[in-house]
Every structure is written in C-alpha cells, then in structure tokens.
C-alpha cells in the first residue's frame, strides 16, 4: 500500500507525495500578497525616514541604497543577503542587476558611498538628499536599521566584515537592532 501525503500551505494544496516521490507541485505565487506586503513596508519605511507621505521618494532612496550596497559587496554575499529578504525587497534589490563581469566597486570611504547612492538615484538625488551628506548618511543608517528586521545578525556581520574600514560604521552602528 502506498501512503499519500497532501501538503497544504496557506490553504492551497502545493504537493501530493506518493511514498517518497512528489507527484505534482502547484506553486501559487501570490503577487497580491507581495504587493500588499511591499506597500505596507514602504508606508512604514516612509514614516521611519520622516518623509511625510512621499512613498515615491522613499522608494527611490531605498532602491539607491540597496543598489549601492550590491555594487560594493561580492556576488556571493549579495546572494546570501537576498536569501533572507522578503520577496518585495528581493525585487527591489535585483531590479536592473547584471551579473556578467560583475566586480565590486572599490568604494572605501563614506563620501564615495554617498556619491554612489546619489548616482543610483539619478536626477532625483538633488531633491531626495537635499544637497546634504548628513541627510544621506542618516537615510543610509535608518535603512540598515530597518533591514536588520529581516537580515540575521550573522549575515549583517558578514557584510560588514567585507566592507572597507570607513564603511563598516554604516552597518556596525546599526547591527544590534
């Protein structure tokens, strides 16, 4: 006699197991759920960043910080990092990412990292960062505090350990949250 096991996830049948073999897999991607979670996150992120209700600005800042981080850490570290992110943040992180011939940028100091963040933000950077390195650094710090809710302490330490000395502070000062 063959034992049939039905796996149910979120009320949907995802697989039928026949003995030790998977017969069918129905993987429901719930894009509405991802959109809802993303919108909730962006609303909270906008509030934490003290940006009023300007979610567009918050989204640009978040994306530019994540893309800048992606440019200064290794591909392997990026993959470990995004493995821990919820789907809506994974999408932001990988948007526009090309792995061909990817080399880490040699960014060694915070002003260079801030310039990279502004570069990723494009023409909106003038408005988004108010011509102020202090504002940009505050946004970076706040973003890493918020990301700590999703990323393990060990992964944050791994990222920090791979950064140049002057950039470690953007993660080190926020790692314990």
Q: What is the number of helical segments per DSSP (H or I, 4+ residues)? A: 9
CATH C-level class: Mainly Alpha
CATH 2nd-level architecture = Orthogonal Bundle
Helix content: 55-70%
- End-to-end separation: 53 Å
In N-to-C order, the SSE pattern is EEEHHHHHHHHH
The low-confidence parts are 4-11, 13-20, 22-27
Backbone shape: globular
- How many E-type strands? 3
Amount of beta strand = 5-15%
CATH superfamily: Uncharacterized conserved protein DUF2267
Structural class: mainly alpha
User: Roughly how many Å is the radius of gyration?
Assistant: 19 Å
Mean pLDDT comes to 83
Largest sheet: 3 strands, antiparallel
The total number of structural domains is: 1
Order of strands across the main sheet: 1-2-3
CATH fold annotation: Globin-like
Structure, explained:
By secondary structure, the chain is mainly alpha-helical. It has a single domain (31-172), classed as Uncharacterized conserved protein DUF2267 (Globin-like, Orthogonal Bundle). Helices cover 55% and strands 10% of the residues. The protein contains 9 helices and 3 strands. The chain has helices spanning 31-48, 55-72, 75-83, 87-94, 110-121, 125-128, 133-147, 153-162, 169-172, and strands spanning 4-9, 12-18, 21-25. The protein has a 3-stranded antiparallel beta sheet, with no helix packed on it. Strand 2 and strand 3 form a beta hairpin. The longest helix has 18 residues, at 31-48. It is globular. The N and C termini lie far apart (53 Å).
């Amino acid at each position: 006699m063959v034992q049939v096991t039905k796996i149910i996830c979120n009320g949907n049948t995802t697989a039928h197991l026949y003995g030790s073999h998977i017969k069918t897999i129905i993987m429901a991607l719930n894009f509405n759920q991802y959109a809802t979670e993303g919108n909730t996150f962006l609303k909270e992120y906008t509030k934490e960043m003290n940006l009023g209700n300007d979610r567009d600005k918050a989204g640009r800042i978040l994306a530019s910080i994540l893309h800048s981080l992606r440019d200064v850490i290794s591909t392997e570290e990026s993959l470990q990092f995004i493995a821990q992110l919820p789907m809506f943040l994974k999408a932001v992180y990988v948007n526009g990412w090309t792995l061909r011939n990817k080399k880490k940028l040699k960014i060694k100091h915070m002003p260079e990292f801030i310039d990279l963040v502004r570069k990723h933000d494009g023409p909106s950077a003038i408005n988004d960062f108010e011509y102020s390195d202090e504002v940009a650094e505050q946004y970076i710090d706040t973003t890493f505090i918020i990301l700590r809710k999703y990323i393990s302490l060990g992964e944050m330490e791994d990222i920090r350990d791979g950064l140049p000395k002057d950039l470690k502070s953007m993660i080190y000062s926020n790692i314990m949250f």
